[in-house]
Write a structure and sequence with these properties.
By secondary structure, the protein is mainly α. It has one domain. The protein has four helices and no strands. Helix 1 packs antiparallel against helix 2, helix 2 runs antiparallel to helix 3 and helix 3 packs antiparallel against helix 4. The longest helix is centred in the last third of the chain and has 41 residues. The radius of gyration is 19 Å and the shape is elongated.
Length: about 160
Amino acid sequence: MKIVGEKSIAPFIKICLQILFVVGILLMFVLPFLGVKYYAKFLFYPFLFIFLGIIYLTGIPALIILTDFIHLFNLLKENNPFIDQTVGYLKQASICCFIITVCYIALVGFSFWISNIHFIIFTSIVMAVFAIAWIGLYILAELFKQANQYKEENDLTI
């Protein structure tokens, strides 16, 4: 299936990215009210604020990643993905994935401290996913950087 052009899935992808962004912003506003009410039953209050802090520290970079993907998708729709902006968006998303990875490493350590095996497993999986995304996006940014250089060389020789 084509991503751009006629009879493509481009409108669906754009709508999905925009919905995810709006839902993410709404969750950032609603989370303290829902979190305190729900987690107060299961955790001591000091732990609750640590968890909410980590969620906010990871939620903001996640929203930045979504905006980067929206910008990248728009560049793809314009048939102009091989520009320096693409490298910038990919590197910014990579840095955000690194921040989320570091936050979840701290949360895994905290999970060992409170001895919750289910939470340890969950946070380890999320940490691993963002660590892989961090490395993958960094490599992809370097590939696009090299492709941009080759494109500029080709443009100059023609």
